[in-house]
Amino acid sequence: MDYQQSHGVEIVSSTHSPYVLRNTVKRIISGASNSLLIAGPFYDRYFFGLLGDYARKGLDIGLIVGTYRDYQIKDWVVDAMSYFEGLSHEMRWKIDGPFCTPNLHYKMLIGQDIGLCGSLNLTGTAMNYNLEIGMVVRGSNVEVLRDIYQRTLRLPRTIEWTRLKDYHGYPPNKTIIFEVERIRKCISEVYQSNRNCPIHKANLKKAIVRLGFPEHLVISAIKEMLMQNELYSPNSNDFVRLV
Fold first, then answer.
1. What digits encode the pLDDT tens for the residues 194-242?
2. Which residues touch 22 (CB under 8 Å, ≥6 apart)?
3. Each residue of 171-196: pLDDT tens digit?
4. pTM of full prediction above 0.85
5. Where in the chain is the domain with CATH 1.10.10?
6. Which CATH class is domain 3-157?
7. DSSP-assigned letter for residue 123
8. Which helix H or strand E contains 61, and what residues bound it?
9. Omega into 18 within 30° of 0, i.e. cis?
10. CATH 3.30.870.10 placement within the chain
11. How buried is residue 104: exposed, middle or buried, by Cβ count under 10 Å (0-12/13-18/19+)?
12. Looking at domain 176-242, does it have CATH number 3.30.870?
């Protein structure tokens, strides 16, 4: 039985051919007529150069970049992202993001009706020198990859690159975890002043923002505390109280 024809999945590796994964990346980029979704822990100028060479002008591009737990980003990645910003303006790409997700480790590229996921970092070193493996998917399997991409965007700690950049200056190498921890403490203090009564989420957000914290970090802290059961909703999703 032909696995590729039966399941719409093809296993490819640079052990088969040194450049098979690089050529697959090129094929996915050049074949994207409307949109291209990209996710990975980091990128370099080589990969963005491939985008400039093979992606169509006016393409809709979604981009997620990984960070360390404390949102630190390597300087060479920041340099590559700056290069990408210049390219996107020149190519008139419509950019959704970039978004930053701590501890992101998977690598994924999704084109029109084909996707790639696997060990391959979207860098020149990985595509030209490393031994890598990947799954090329087609058909309904592409929608599975799209769903994973969208689920990543909905994670409470996923924030926009521009917000991270603007909040800490450029390059964004300082931690924001300390600020989120301060927000958590402020939420506890707000509850103590309200005698542990349930508070509407909108009012809680406003109260913390008034203390001078950025709104997007306040929202992230509230979502994180709800997910970690440090807050709970007694009657409605709109009302929360401290555990």
1. 766 778 778 888 888 888 777 777 887 787 777 777 777 766 667 777 7
2. 127, 128
3. 444 456 667 777 888 888 887 777 66
4. no
5. 176-242
6. alpha beta
7. S
8. strand 60-67
9. no
10. 3-157
11. buried
12. no
